[in-house]
Amino acid sequence: MSAVCESYHSREKVFVDSFTCPKAGGESTAVFCCGFSDLKYCCDDPNSFFPYEYGYMWWLSLGALVGLSVAAVVLLAFVITLCVLCYLFVTTKPRGLDSGLPLRAPGTVSRCRVCAGPSLLKH
């Protein structure tokens, strides 16, 4: 059983002649013609789309999984921190209204008769 890969132009616009699978010096199980219109090769799986080993794809998947996990942990830490800060902001706000008392340094006498109260008015 053998397949013929028709001639094609590569991505670099180089003309590649047709060839039969399996190629001389290639794997004897690669009896199918696989690939795209600009890259054809012999393979052992007629549904194959990539002329590379699948092992590197697992490393890419593992790297993506680790990267996404780290990003998820950072996002979760950010959301928890934001919730804690919002809770602290809401719970530490002063609940009472301003009493209206004037602010003054301790030990000073107020010159305002209304502010001083009835004790200074007796003089």
TrEMBL record:
Keywords per UniProt: Membrane, Transmembrane, Transmembrane helix
Keyword Transmembrane in record: yes
Residue ranges of every copy of the Shisa N-terminal domain listed in the record: 4-47
Localization per record: Membrane
CC annotations in GO: membrane
Record-annotated membrane-spanning stretches: 56-89
InterPro entries on file: Shisa, Shisa_N
Domain of life of the native organism: Eukaryota
Name this protein carries in UniProt: Shisa N-terminal domain-containing protein
Species this chain originates from: Poecilia mexicana
